[in-house]
Every structure is written in C-alpha cells, then in structure tokens.
Amino acid sequence: MVRITELGHLPAHDLMFGFSPDNIADRLTIENWTTRALLRKYRDDVVYIMILRAVEQWNDLSVYLVRASSLGETTCDLSARFLKLEEALAYVNGEDGGAIATGTVAVPAEEYPAGEAAAVSVFTSR
C-alpha cells in the first residue's frame, strides 16, 4: 500500500527557500512553531529542525511531522511523527528525553554554513 501524507504548502521558513537566521528560535512554542526552526549539532553536522502539520491521506488523520534536515542529506534519523503538537514540541525542544535531547546540542544561527542558497527559485509576473 502506498501511503501519502499531504503537507499542503511549505512554509516560508522551509530550507528549500534558503536559510535565514531570522527563522531560528531558541525553542519552538505554540506561538512560533509555524514560522521558526531550531538549529542543533548532530554528529558532525548542523541540523535544521522544524515541525510541519500534515494529513495522512489513507486515514485522514492530522499529524505533526518533525523534519530534521542537514546539508549532507535530505533528512536524518531525528525526524519523527506525532499525533499531538505538544508531543512534537517537547521532542524538538529536547524536553522528552528523546533522540534530540540525548543526541544533539543547540547551536546559534551563526553556526549554519554560509552561502547556502535556496534549492528553488520563485518567479512572479505581473
């Protein structure tokens, strides 16, 4: 069975649109998770971590996907799926004792490699 998860539109702070230090927060909250991300040191890489709301098409269930992206790979094994936003927030902030809490360290936006351009270009016309 093919399982499809509908993400809708990617948020403006998605790495596909390029990196901006303005999108980085010290922690994600109920108020900022839709517009901010975290940076964590994981193994030898800086990882960009964000939460996306999605709908699983096979069961019409709303879920929260934690997406951890690094420069060396699209996602890493820190990515996870949660049924409740509060659980996703606890995980990304390292407050649940999970993989982010035990395997990463917070880093400031200055740690992100310079010169990372967007993976896509957006053109508009009038």
What can you see in these coordinates?
The structure is a single chain. The chain is mainly beta. The chain has one domain (5-111). It contains two helices and six strands, in the order βββββααβ. Strands 1, 2, 3, 4, 5 and 6 form a six-stranded antiparallel β-sheet that branches. A hairpin with a 2-residue loop joins strand 2 and strand 3. Residues 120-124 have low confidence and may be disordered.
Strand % is 25-35%
Q: Total number of β-strand segments? A: 6
Secondary-structure element pattern, one letter each: EEEEEHHE
Gross morphology is globular
Sheet with the most strands, sense and barrel status: 6 strands, antiparallel
Mean pLDDT: 84
Proportion of residues in helical segments: 10-25%
Query: What would you report as the Rg, rounded to the nearest angstrom?
Result: 15 Å
> What is the number of independent domains?
1
- Secondary-structure content class: mainly beta
Distance between the termini: 43 Å
Helix run count: 2
Q: Residue ranges: pLDDT <50 for 5 or more in a row? A: 120-124
Describe the structure using short key phrases.
126 residues, 28% strand, six-stranded antiparallel β-sheet, mainly beta, 6 strands, single chain
